[in-house]
Prior knowledge:
Layout: E1 30-31, E2 56-58, E3 64-74, E4 79-87, E5 96-101, E6 105-108, E7 113-116, H1 120-124, H2 140-149
Parallel strand pairs: 1-6, 2-7
Antiparallel strand pairs: 2-3, 3-4, 4-5, 6-7
Organism: Amantichitinum ursilacus
Region (Disordered): 1-44
Protein name: PRC-barrel domain protein
Amino acid sequence: MAINQYGSSSDLNRGYTGGSLDSSSRDQTIVGSPESFVNDGPGPELMLASSLEGDNVYNPAGEKLGDIKGIMLDVRQGRIAYAVLSFGGFLGIGDKLFAVPWQALTLDVDNKQFLLNQDKETLKNAPGFDKDHWPSMADSTWANEINTFYRSEPYWH
């Protein structure tokens, strides 16, 4: 059974309907109506990493880009480094994985999904990997390449 930490709604599969990623909410990395931040559970500002696995990722145009397969933690710094995004393929076959810098994602609490400011064609050309050949994510050259692609400031700065 999945733990719903977003709030009281159990509808986890609604699609993004478009709109700006900017919000007057508490933080740029979390958007939603004020009611979305009042609930009986711990979220949306503090969540189990495992509860985010399977969450859909959309872009501002409303295109589904994929879903979250995992969260990569920087254990030494105690921070989330990347979300692993699965994109492409069919029924898990031929999927390509992408390490998306955590700060490049915005949690859309109202729609229970993440937003990434990338179009599908650009994402197809992103540095990625397959499930059996993961990169050395602690390598600074690799990390800088990823952050440059997503126009994201490295979290360690």
